[in-house]
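Example record for the data management plan.
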Amino acid sequence: MTAIKQVAGAIGALAVLAGCGGGADSSDGAESEFAQGSASTIQKASVEDMQSLDALHMEGSITQQGSEVGINISLTTDGDCSGTVSRGDSGEAEVVSLDGTSWFRPDEEFWRAQAGPQAETIISTVGDKWVQLPEGDSSFASFCDLQGLLDQVGTDNEKDSATKGETSDIGGREAIQLTTKDEQGGSTSSWVAVDDPHYIVKVDREGGESPGSITFSEFGEDASIEAPADDEVITVEELQKQAQG
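Corresponding structural encoding:
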């Protein structure tokens, strides 16, 4: 489960990364009235619109402790999510969390990186099944926590002053760039959609801790999260019993 926990840590880093504070601007931006507004006005609008969401999709990668953590996941403010996560050369895992129950389905590289000498036994035991985590297990809580991410986006960070940049096409949306710098020497850029609603469509972090790039899409769309079929699931307890022989 080490890789899963590191991915969860990366989502925590993403929450901080996305919490770009407002401040003064230094560019006239694009021709639209919204893009001509101050950085603080743009930031305020993006916070209000992001916090109105109940679901979104995010995709990209964050580097933590020298390893690249990949994320391709849909999540909701109910704490439900589905998608894939990966960490460096430690493989990839499909994940689902729904109504407080969580499942994951790793590839063989994941098991070999995490299970040591028991890897081959576990691979032959699990096959293509999903592994259901015990009731109350919180391993997925961090990276399924859309509400926590959105709350962090709205956190006031008065010491940061955002610089307004140019507009770019991000996933088919015209977006205005806001950039802040931090005490660790890193910089965070957020691209805010020029058209209403003013969602944050991309966040990049360079330098400092946990650099990476994440894009956001499918704002407010039905995430269509479904639990695996019962005959495709093995519980952690069953896995432990069968692996021990």
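Summary line stored alongside the record: Residues 2-18 form the longest helix (17 residues).
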